[in-house]
Amino acid sequence: MITVNNVYKLFDGKEILHDVSAKFYSGKTNLIIGQSGSGKTVLMKCIVGLLRPDKGQICYDGRDVMAMTQAQTKALRNEIGMLFQGSALFDSETVLGNVMFPLRMFTHDSYAACKKRAEFCLERVNLKGVNDLYPSEISGGMQKRVAIARAIALNPKYLFCDEPNSGLDPKTSILIDELLSDITREYNMTTIINTHDMNSVIGIGENIVFINKGYREWVGNKNKIFTSSNEALNDFVFATRLFKEVKGYMIEEYRKQEATEEK
């Protein structure tokens, strides 16, 4: 579990995050949502260590990041996997070479051992027969799965995903969501996903943190989001007519479910 306690972040005197606290649980898909400029990306960068908060505390399973030595910080980074928005694959490396890269860079395993682990990770994300192809020779959805395979190659305890469905069609987006959800449960990882995709929110939002204008505005899950009275959240999630209709339908289904459980 990752806990964020009373975090502040300023840029040029302007407050981007104000007293943000949140918990991100192991074995669950944790989503950070919010409008562009809300501070959600800054929050994720603070959590992963790309930015240092001006005030507050960030703990990985009780370990205070702000109090870590350089050696402890380096050790923690080996427990972290990253899935970047644009996949960030190396064009000059094959699919297999891309997944092997962190293994060869950060372990002392033999080439054969790295290759075996990379092949296992590619099979885990349902990719076969593409090991010798280059990123330009496969689809965007396949590239994203290669990036996921690379992110889990070192068997991380913590997985960070920045807009994993960016640029993907709806069907492929659902497949990526389901894959991230499955491997999160399978490896009991603390997975944090920064997303604008409302299909992801409704589909895999087990723990959702809504950031609005630098404040933690709301926390809940994909069921509670339909009955929330938070106006800013409703404006963000149900901005379109389609989602407003979906909300009405889901509220009715949620109430029916509650009534059945009471009986």
Automatic annotation (TrEMBL):
Designated name of the protein: Phosphonate ABC transporter ATP-binding protein
Species of provenance: Barnesiella viscericola DSM 18177
Keyword ATP-binding in record: yes
Lineage top rank: taxon: Bacteria
Keyword entries, A-Z: ATP-binding, Nucleotide-binding, Transport
Single GO MF descriptor: ATP binding
ABC transporter domain: residues covered: 2-238
Keyword Protein transport: no
